[in-house]
Write a structure and sequence with these properties.
Helix content: 40-55%
Distance between the termini: 36 Å
Structural class: alpha/beta
CATH architecture of the largest domain: 3-Layer(aba) Sandwich
Number of strands: 9
Organism: Marine Group I thaumarchaeote
Order of helices and strands: HEHEHEEHEHEEEHEHHHHH
Protein name: AAA family ATPase
Oligomer: single chain
GO molecular function: ATP binding; ATP hydrolysis activity
Number of helices: 11
Radius of gyration: 22 Å
Largest sheet: 5 strands, parallel
CATH class of the largest domain: Alpha Beta
Number of domains: 2
Shape: elongated
Length: 263
């Protein structure tokens, strides 16, 4: 079953204005706030083909541009996702772009400047110019997330429209969760959202090492639908992950869970 995206802060409208103005967009926010869901929803509403790449330390220029291959004695060039999207005029989604290595960003910068073109130095030297309506959206996580780096100013400047996507207000988060669950456990889910926000706020001031996302509050509701008690679901979804940082960290969270959901 396809879940309809709840655009609670009118981000789709901003994306649409940016698209009409031929401006690329950067979406900034912590994990699990719906950044990818927003991008997919926008592409679907615009009936655009969406190409996407998730950046990491292992992402290479060849993933973006392409690479030469040898098949039965014949050398050919397999185009990368960047080149494909430029030639087709597809929407390109650069997920967690601030996890990319400097050389990858440098090559990406070549395509994102006002000329919207890239030279295939790996192949024939052909100049690929982006088709009209080529649209690029990138996302970044806060620098507190492992593996992220500060984006160079020249890359930031390629995305002049910036959308800040935070965790939604509690009533909106409840509406989002209810799209995934039966709705029979509303009071328990409200309590779980309050717990998640306590943990998020503690993580924001570095009192805890981890901040639960919307995925976790949705998971809590799904476990209730499967017959777990609210205390059990809270332990499995919110509490146990903190054992990664030792018993003191876990006990802090476990005490909060016990105070909210009982023994």
């Amino acid at each position: 079953m396809e879940i309809q995206y709840l655009d609670w802060n009118n981000s789709n409208q901003i994306l649409n204005k940016a698209y009409e103005a031929d401006l690329f967009v950067l979406i900034i926010g912590p994990k699990g706030t719906g950044k990818t869901s927003l991008v997919r929803d926008f592409a679907k509403n615009k009936n655009m083909n969406l190409e996407s790449i998730n950046f990491s330390l292992r992402t290479r220029e060849s993933h973006l541009v392409g690479t030469k291959t040898l098949t039965d004695g014949t050398v050919s060039f397999d185009e990368g996702i960047l080149v494909k999207s430029m030639k087709k005029g597809d929407m390109l989604y650069l997920d967690e772009i601030n996890s990319a290595e400097a050389d990858v960003l440098l090559r990406l910068d070549e395509a994102l400047d006002d000329r919207r073109q890239i030279v295939l130095k790996e192949s024939t030297g052909e100049v690929i110019k982006a088709k009209e309506n080529w649209f690029v959206v990138a996302t970044i996580n806060p620098l507190s997330h492992t593996g992220t780096k500060e984006l160079p100013p020249q890359i930031l400047s390629r995305f002049p429209v910036r959308i800040r996507l935070e965790y939604p207000p509690e009533n909106i988060e409840l509406e989002i969760i209810k799209k995934y669950v039966s709705g029979e456990h509303e009071l328990e889910i409200i309590q779980a959202i309050k717990l998640a926000n306590i943990l998020r706020q503690a993580a924001a001031v570095e009192e805890l090492f981890y901040s639960p996302s919307l995925r976790e509050t949705i998971a809590f509701g799904k476990l209730l639908d499967k017959g777990l008690s609210s205390k059990e679901a809270a332990n499995f979804v919110f509490g146990n992950v903190y054992t990664q940082w030792g018993n003191i960290e876990y006990q802090k969270v476990n005490d909060i869970i016990t105070s909210m959901f009982g023994n």
